[in-house]
Design a protein that fits this description.
Layout (H helix, E strand, L loop, with lengths): L1 H13 L5 H16 L11 E11 L4 E7 L4 E3 L1 E4 L6 H13 L5 E2 L8 E9 L8 E11 L13 E8 L10 H13 L1
Parallel strand pairs: 1-7
Antiparallel strand pairs: 1-2, 1-4, 2-3, 2-8, 5-7, 6-7
Helix pairs in contact: 1-2
Amino acid sequence: MQQASQALLHTLNEYIWEDEAEGASVILTKQLLLTYPDIWLRSCGAGHITGSGLVVDSVNKQILLLHHRKLNLWLQMGGHGEGELEPSLIALREVIEESGLTDVSYFPDCGYPTLIDVDAHRIPARRDEPEHYHLDFRYLFYTRTPEKVQCLKVEANELRWYSFAEIPTLPLKAATLRLIHKAEKLL
């Protein structure tokens, strides 16, 4: 885990954030990576690394969003690690699990994942879990078979493709909007 944390710190040291909110997320993530050797594990009380991905249909200029049942929000797909020590692999697994798509690839198609956003956000205390941070590393994916989307996870009400023009009509968090705007620029 120490080697994975060092690699992630190196990535964050090279990363250029877009705004103050993302900059604060990067700084907090670096501090927690240096403080907690078990930051990769869900059992780390301060928080843990998560990975998420926004899927694009670049032909139709649409993005895939998931309506989260508990949060009542439209979000990109993502979640906790299950032993992966690379956030891009967490994101890839979560995108496949939550969308049912089997042909997703990292965008841009350059042979390796490109980190496009970092968001550290508080998760409120629930039952036996104290308040903690999700240190979310966000990637962009594309698919050639957007029609094969299937809502497979119980935490999702639905999955839906949205054009970039429809985004302003949705109730989205600022960090989600930032991610979507970055994706739109990349396309």
